Amino acid sequence: MSDTLPLSIVNNRRLEKWLRFEADRSLHLGVGKVEIGQGVLIALSQIAAEELDVDVSRVNILSGDTADAPDEGSTSSSQSIEVSGRSVRLVSAELRQRVLTRLAQRLNCSPSDITVEDGAFHLDDQPTGHDYWNFVGPADYEADITGAAQPKAPSSYRVVGQPVPRKDLIAKVSGAAFIHDMVRPDMLHARMLRQPGRGATLVGLDEAAIRRAAKGAFRVVRLGNFVAFVGADETVVQRAAVAAVTHAKWEGARVLTPEHGEAAWFVDQPADDRLVGDAPTTPTGEVVSAVYARPFVAHAAMAPSCGLAEFRDGHMEVWSHTQGVYPLRNSIADILGLPQDRVIVRHAHGAGCYGHNGADDAALDAAVIAQQLPGHCIRVQWRREEEFGYEPVSTAHRTRIAVELDAAGRPVDWTTEVWAGSHVQRPIYGGLFLAQEALPNPPPPAKPGDPPEANGGGGTRNGTPLYDFAAKRIVHHLALKTPVRTSSLRGLGALPNVFAMECFMDELAERAGKDPVAYRLAVLSDPRARYLVENVAARCDWSNRGPVGTGRGLGLAWARYKNKAAYACVAVELDVDEDIRLRRVWCCADAGLVINPDGAKNQLEGGIIHAASMTLKEQVMLDGDGITSLDWASYPIMTFSEVPEISTEIVHAPDLPTLGMGECTFGPTAAAIGNAVAHALGVRIREMPLTRERIAGVLARG
After folding, report:
1. Do 151 and 224 fall within a single domain?
2. Which residues does 556 contact at the CB level (< 8 Å), separation at least 6?
């Protein structure tokens, strides 16, 4: 049955890698997925506790550790519960079955006669004197995982489906749980001087001037264009790094203009072109089209990236808030010329990232320095300007929709045309680390790629509408070069594509003289999607929506993330005056079996706030030799006082498979805001962010 097993189990067939009963009567659960703000660890703990019938408080989870946790790749694409959760369920069920089968032979009964209460085994409601901790032995771990054990029926769940509190929040609220708080023996602090783009060469460094500015002792570690300032006093190395920017001379730096930051720049660039879906046809009816765009955007994590590494006795140990400890280990070993078994990467909690930010780069920075200064723990923390200026950003994205209409104004042929850079340039997909590019003899850049459609796509993600149209296709122009380094950010191409498609559906409804909700439902047969649209429309009082152009708008949009994960519908009420002010948001989501409703609600609402911030405010600015939006003033995000009231409902569907929901509200929120602004103003704004300046420009053009 290995062909039906989750990939996490296929790659990790030994039970002891996942589960162990410890002497202190706790349950050790090892997983490869990591906590990056989504609350996944308590949900995975609930699944193991449920299947093994132990109290969830006994579960001690180890996540993201190449020495003692399974390799589950990267924590991305809303797959933690879909893949890792399913794996934990199957593994736990199998261990329980093995143990109860062996115990039943000893007690001369059927395994079904044995019940388990918080890890203790009972027969005929009487204690047997056995429990997991005194009975489980080597025999239970001998065979590889088969996945053949039948997990519990959802109707019997007592822990799964309940809002169990997260264990990590108290330490995080008190400020002692993050990688930034770690202190190790023999620790030295480091700050970096960054190469202004691949190919730039450092031809001068006024070390004397830097030392005068730093006002303290530090070492300089230099390998080619890789430069670090290292010392015991963090303030001193911070001053050195700030001073170094003005006392370094580079040649061969790139030259950028603001136009490089706009999605329209991609249209005339060399690209890898491909067609996904139905073959093009010759239209026989009316064709209408519109273009939508989103600029480059940043992860904008509240804390800058940080990494720790120490090199002792030929072994490298690294701590990182990476999304993938095993891919990072493999890269570090390869770049530093070390055997993989001499590199350990352990996950440490960071400030959240929802994509490929600077975490892996900071870890490699620390490892390169540690190899040069063995016997010390090297702590690299990026500066805020460094985080904004050098993390991989999400590519600008241009989407053109062209639709052939029938006599009733409904689409019969739909084309989504996308121009964008790569949405995924993680090292495992050919992307390079900053340090790797700065070290001597850097490897050549790989040809940019995107995730295949089977994995949800990148620039094409959610580019195919799920409405009942006869013909649908995507024309994808993947740019072969981008002005700055790009990689994954929450949703990849889903947000700009859903923004385009769901805004265009409103435009088509207006063109046909139809109500936008009724227009959607007339071409939507999926019952799960229809329920969400009808639910949200009723809750936001859509039927009493006011007239167009009053300054108050109500907009609605829906999508199924990756066209195969969780469904979400979002409605937004807002006011437009000098700025856009969100008043209320309604959301309904369907993710099948939900493990922790409180965590799921937090994910949905966090996605709404994140998407709203991106839609209304966020844009990476380019000029000179790189990114110029280097602080919170030049890269504003939504503030607490701007967060609207959010009303969220989750469909109760425990008998349906769990669907990844961490990114499902992202696209619908952006599109709902776009539709609400159009309703409020009477004119359509098709480019994000929907700033005051952009609104004024559209209104001025009439």
Report:
1. no
2. 516, 517, 533, 536, 537, 540, 542, 569, 570, 571, 572, 672, 675
